[in-house]
Amino acid sequence: MDVISALEAKYVKDNIPEFKPGDTLKVSTKIREGDKERIQAFEGVVIQRRGRGTGATFTLRKISGGVGVERIFPLFSPNITKLEILRQGKVKRAKLYYLRGLKGKSARIQEKKKEEETGAES
Amino acid sequence: MEGILGKKIGMSRIFNEEGQSIPVTVIEAGPCPVVQIKTVAQDGYDSVQLGFGEKRKNLFTQPLLGHFAKAKLEPRRILKEVKNAKVEGMTVGQEVKVDIFSVGEKVKVSGISKGLGFQGVVRRYNFRGGPKSHGQSDRMRAPGSVGSSSYPSRTFKGQRMAGRMGGEKVTIRNLVVAGVDLEKNLLLLRGAVPGKKNSYLTIRKIS
After folding, report:
1. In this complex, is the C-beta atom of A38 within 8 Å of any C-beta atom belonging to chain B?
2. C or N: which end of chain B has fewer Cβ atoms within 10 Å?
3. What is the pTM of this model?
4. What is the C-alpha to C-alpha distance for residues B199 and B207, in angstroms, rounded to an integer?
């Protein structure tokens, strides 16, 4: 292993559930306000995953009060306390930037069916 | 000891206690043997000469081999002096390791910057170039005037023009030490340092 990946291995977590663009996630992060700490949750659709090692990030997009909100999380951030997959979506792109131009009904993502997941190999 | 020699490995990012992501440069620093100690009495100034890196033995010149043999050391690729170092207590052959630095300390890093070849004046000196519109053609990255008319009837020396950029010694000051790994001889500095990967660097304390 090269020096940099050996160094990053300390920060790279292996207990992160596998998720893909199109999935809906709920991410709980630690927020520090003064000397108090609290947990804040952000729920949204994964529109991109990028990077390797400690630099890996993902972007969540949600519509909040009629306004599109996107937030980028470092995948291995120690501030992420919980990462839940709420829904697996069926999409044909790795980067779902096209969602930014859509709203309402057309911005929905079809849910992945159980049969598709198992039947895809055959 | 006031400084050490190292090799740039590359960049990465790590997380600090607050969970913030910090961009770091990974440097393989030391261990550097002390090859020669210069003193005011003998050489007119105080400095410690360090060696670092490997090179095939047949590539060394005889004078250099003799210099290393005098210190009873294997020949090293790089020889650099750390000036104004405290000479007392240093012995020839002693190894300088990364533990001379501690996390949070500020350092300066010197190295040879990336060679960028022949570059225009916009890239090289951050000139603004000419206007895009108002009847202009071929003026977008032009340097503009290089001097006045009948007086002085010449272009002053030092006028900034296009030319070779990079490949020169650059020193970056006030970089913060983000991590020290004595076992693997690694030094992590917050931010970027001059040069390409595998280029040699001098890391010195700020005095």
Report:
1. no
2. C
3. 0.82
4. 25
Q: Which helix (H) or strand (E) holds B42?
A: helix B40-43
Q: Is the dihedral of CA B186, B190, B196, B200 positive or negative?
A: negative
Give yes or no for A56 touching B (CB within 8 A).
no
All residues of chain B having their beta carbon less than 8 Å from the beta carbon of residue A4 are 9-10, 12, 26
B-chain residues near A58 (CB < 8 A): none
Length of chain B equals 207
Q: Cα separation of A101 and A76, whole Å?
A: 29
Q: How far apart are CA B81 and CA B3, in angstroms?
A: 9
Residue matched to tokens 């529109």: A47
pLDDT tens digit sequence for B52-86: 988 888 898 999 899 988 888 888 898 988 887 67
The rounded distance, in Å, linking the Cα atoms of B25 and B10 is: 6
pLDDT for B110-166, tens place per residue?
Answer: 999 999 999 999 999 999 999 999 999 899 999 999 999 999 999 999 999 999 999
Which residue in A has a C-alpha nearest to residue B14's C-alpha? Answer: A54
Q: Is B9 on the interface with A (CB under 8 A)?
A: yes
Whether the complex's predicted ipTM surpasses the cut of 0.95: no
Inter-chain CB proximity A30 and B26 less than 8 Å: no
